């Protein structure tokens, strides 16, 4: 008889859970009697079993969310392409209208690629295969390129996106990882900032060994309880009555990348309202001169 700990919301999930549990129990059964399943010999075995089951459940949950989030955006993209193709064949659109629609499709594809990149980052981090490749680069240039990338998204959202950073901020960082951090924080500020202005600023003290990147919005802010959990997997800083698409892993990925870069990330209330995400990064890794 299946015990209460194995009860699941459906017969299928119940069977899968019990099969996983039975399979795990087999690993600690008598080697001379592989067909005989025995209960864990100690509390530590039971705890380990619980951890493994939780890991399987988290994996399955993420796969389900990922499949949903990667499939759904494709429907409107395909619809936009089909509509444009039909209009072009009928001679309905002018060159300016075609350009406008292609710009929208391009923006949708960029958003889709960001989702796919986030999924890949999660896979690499959780499997221990996430490696940094620091090289000399200019943070000031990276900040402006990311802001430029979000220009159309910000305009569409009714958000004023501004940059306050020196033109030249030399250092040694993994460029792609750094872009991912800034990209995610700017994207969140636009998405959750309630059409308020977003400011991306960089503090580079003369002679200092670190830089400080701040992304500030003027939105509704984040509640104290949400500040405690937003850097966890499958978490988003939105209320129960709000609906936003996304994996809920973006800030977790950002936190993991910042930690790998020997930096620190924090979130605070902005003076006058809104939220500030602050990232402090060393200009050079500790193993570099």
TrEMBL record:
Catalytic activity: ATP + protein L-histidine = ADP + protein N-phospho-L-histidine
Domain Histidine kinase: 65-285
Domain of life: Bacteria
Pfam families linked to this entry: HATPase_c, HisKA
UniProt organism field: Lichenicoccus roseus
PANTHER family referenced in this protein's UniProt entry, alphabetically: HYBRID SIGNAL TRANSDUCTION HISTIDINE KINASE C (PTHR43547:SF2), TWO-COMPONENT HISTIDINE KINASE (PTHR43547)
E.C. number(s) listed in UniProt: 2.7.13.3
Alphabetized GO MF terms: phosphorelay sensor kinase activity
CDD domains linked to this entry: HisKA (cd00082)
Protein name: histidine kinase
InterPro entries in the record: HATPase_C_sf, HATPase_dom, His_kinase_dom, HisK_dim/P_dom, HisK_dim/P_sf, Sig_transdc_His_kin-like_C
EC supergroup of this enzyme: transferase
The entry's keywords: Kinase, Phosphoprotein, Transferase
Keyword hit for Transferase: yes
Keyword Transferase belongs to the record: yes
């Amino acid at each position: 008889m299946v015990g209460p700990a194995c009860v699941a919301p459906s017969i299928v999930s119940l069977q899968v859970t019990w099969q996983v549990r039975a399979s795990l129990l087999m690993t600690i059964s008598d080697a001379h009697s592989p067909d005989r399943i025995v209960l864990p010999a100690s509390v530590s075995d039971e705890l380990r079993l619980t951890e493994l089951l939780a890991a399987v459940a988290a994996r399955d949950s993420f796969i389900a969310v990922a499949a949903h989030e990667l499939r759904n955006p494709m429907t409107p993209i395909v619809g936009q392409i089909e509509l444009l193709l039909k209009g072009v064949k009928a001679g309905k659109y002018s060159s300016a209208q075609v350009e406008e629609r292609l710009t929208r499709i391009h923006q949708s594809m960029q958003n889709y690629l960001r989702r796919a990149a986030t999924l890949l980052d999660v896979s690499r981090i959780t499997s221990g295969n996430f490696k940094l490749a620091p090289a000399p680069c200019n943070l000031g240039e990276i900040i402006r390129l990311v802001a430029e990338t979000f220009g159309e998204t910000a305009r569409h959202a009714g958000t004023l996106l501004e940059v306050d950073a020196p033109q030249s901020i030399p250092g040694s960082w993994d460029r792609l990882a750094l872009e991912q951090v800034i990209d995610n924080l700017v994207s969140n500020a636009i998405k959750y900032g309630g059409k308020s202005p977003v400011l991306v600023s960089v503090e580079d003290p003369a002679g200092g060994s670190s830089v400080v990147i701040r992304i500030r919005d003027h939105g509704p802010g984040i509640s104290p309880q949400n500040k405690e959990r937003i850097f966890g997997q499958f978490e988003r800083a939105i209320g129960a009555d709000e609906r936003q698409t996304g994996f809920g892993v973006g800030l977790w990925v950002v936190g993991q990348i910042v930690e790998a870069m020997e930096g620190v990330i924090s979130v605070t209330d902005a003076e006058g309202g809104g939220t500030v995400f602050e990232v402090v990064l060393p200009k050079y890794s500790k193993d570099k001169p």
